[in-house]
Amino acid sequence: MWGLGKPQSKVGKFIAKHGYSIQELSKVSKVNRNTVGKICSDSTYLPTANTIKKIMEAIRQLDPNAKTEDFFDI
Fold first, then answer.
1. What residues have CB less than 8 Å from 57, skipping those under 6 apart?
2. How far is CA 71 from CA 40, 43, 45, in A?
3. In Å, how far from its chain's centre is CA 66?
4. Please, which residues have CB within 8 angstroms of residue 27's CB and are 6 or more apart in sequence?
5. In what residue span(s) does the HTH cro/C1-type domain sit (predicted)?
6. Whether the predicted pLDDT of 74 surpasses 90
């Protein structure tokens, strides 16, 4: 899972809290694992609108009330 001292974005903290890995989020959202890794570790990274949509659809499977603004600065 996550090592000590590694930076995490809001998405990274959310999936770690729910016991999911980057690989699992990648599979569910159908977004490249490297992109998901960047989204989970770099809080300044802003993915494309299509990628955000896919990630949010996967997150809403865990929390139906999740809002895009809670995870991405758009």
1. 29
2. 10, 9, 11
3. 12
4. none
5. 17-59
6. no
> Which are the contacts of 23, defined by CB distance < 8 A and separation ≥ 6?
33
Give the up-direction half-sphere exposure of residue 48: CA atoms within 13 A in the CB hemisphere.
Answer: 6
Q: Which of 11, 13, 8, 16 is nearest to 54 (CA)?
A: 11
pLDDT at 25: 97
CA distance 58 to 28: 6
Q: What is the CA radius of gyration of the chain?
A: 11
* pLDDT score, position 6: 75
Model confidence pLDDT, tens digit, residues 8-67: 999 999 999 999 999 999 999 999 999 999 999 999 999 999 999 999 999 999 999 999
pTM: 0.89
